[in-house]
Task: structure prediction
Amino acid sequence: MSGPLDRLRTAFGRRSAREGANLGVTALLLLGVLVGVNYVANRRNVSWDLTAGGQFSLSPQTVRILEELDRDIRLVVLDQPRAAGRTVELLERYADRSDRVAWEVIDQEAEPARARAYQATAEAGIPFGTVVVESGERQERVTAPQEQDITNAIVKILKGETRKVYFTSGHQERSLEETGAGGLSAIASRLEESNYEVADLALLEHVEDGEVRIPEDAAVVIVAGPRLDLLSAEAAALAAHVRAGGKAMLLLDPPDPPGTQDAREELTGLASEFGATPAGDVVIDASGVGQLFGFGVEVPLAASYGFHPITRGFANAATVFPLSQSLIATPPDELPRGMRLSELVLSSDVAWGEVDPEELESGEVNAGEEERAGPLRLAYAVHVPTGDQEDPADEAGAGEPDSPEATADREPEADPDREPGGEPAEDPEGRLVIVGDSDFIGNNLALAPLGNADLFLNMVNWLAEDEDLIAIRPRAAEDRRITMTSAQVRNVVLLSLVFLPGFFLIWGVTVWWSRR
Result:
């Protein structure tokens, strides 16, 4: 007589029981895998952005700032949860990039007491949709929750100070207040968004002991397209400022009329003193690429960029420089000891520097034998030593440094003690950017879907030694609508609603009939 143990052993010895046990174990293993995958997925969110313009990805600027956070950042959305869907999606991308970022939605209607904690004493209320960026006791508000605005608010909290960018005035420079096509109001707004204070600078109003002095709070001094020449005292003050470790930018348009002798001798002499002499020509681009964007041959489209922190990430960015003159670099062995030039922007190979004013006026331009052929240099960054510094080329024992033309497509050797494109981090240096054009930052181009504004902001960031801000900034959503004529719409309707369904219907009936 068999006992319970024998009956149990017999039952488990059956094939059906073994298969059931195997199925149960497999189900448990599968359940364990699913639980593990969900656990990892909840802790590490991974997504892929397959849109053409990367509309659902954070910009390189934002990613770099988030990766280098040294404190906790809290993002608070003051809005109804149902209305804050798109903002929440954006904030989730920030949190996915850094464990130091947390976000929360506070409904001002359901939780008025919590919302009032972010309200100033004299305020009647906070607009719905406002994002408050806070860290410790510091707070910044963003009323238009776009990536650029939120990132700028984070930068303001991290830096804790506003740096001053001066634009010189008194020489018929481009105006910061002008809202027309040639004004600088748009680029001034972009600078303010990047935590800079923008102001005019009349150099002759800053005279001490008989000499022009650059204000001590100047992070960057910009000379933007002056039509009149500087006084010798003003040019000397700018040169002394850079040699003492200051930062400046010269945006020098061609002479008027183009192709003639430039009467602005102090300005051109100042640029030449730092190794980049304005050629006085007008760069003509015969490649035809600019015409695809609606520009003429007198508006060169940048074909390539030099290897420098300013142009990091610009390999596929388009920038244009209307009526730009080219720059001629001083040979390295003729530069002052320790001074280095880095080319930033180059024209196409089929460009040339036109110097015939009659051809420019008539619009029928042809490359002459004596005119400089492309690629031409449109912008340079200059590293200016301060005090007694050794020449980097002498220290390396490599002889004279390479010419700017020879280093256009070559990356420098890695050096752990050097910043990208700069001197050793511990050595101070003056910095200067020289561009043969000022039209490229006018309102019409600063607001266009081009890289002009980004390039200029990168120049300012590098000059102000804010390299952490240098990157391509967020882009507006690309308009991918298709415009069709009425005939094209009719053809699409017939193809999708009549011909394709009819073809598959006839095919199905034919197959069914043949199988009968």
